Amino acid sequence: MRSKKLSIGLTAVLAILMVTLLATATRAFAQQETVLYNFGTHGKDSRFTFASVVFDTAGNLYATAFNGGIYGLGTVFELTPNPGGSWDETIIHSFGGSAQDGTLPHANLIFDAIGNLYSTTYYGGAYNDGTVFELTPRPGGGWMEKILHNFNGGDGQAPLGGLIFDSAGNLYGTTSGGGSQGGGTAFELTPNVNGGWTERVLHNFDQTDGHYPFSSLIFDTAGNLYGTTQVGGAYNGGTVFELRPAVGKGWAEKVLYSFNGTAGTVPDCSLIFDAAGNLYGTAAEGGAYNAGTVFELMPTVGDNWTLSVLHTFDPLVNDGVEPSAGLIFDASGNLYGTTYYGGTYGAGTAFELTPTGGGNWTETVLNNFNYSGGKGIAPYASLILDSAGNLYGTTYTGGVHGHGTVFEITP
Question: Is residue 7 part of a domain?
Answer without folding.
Answer: no
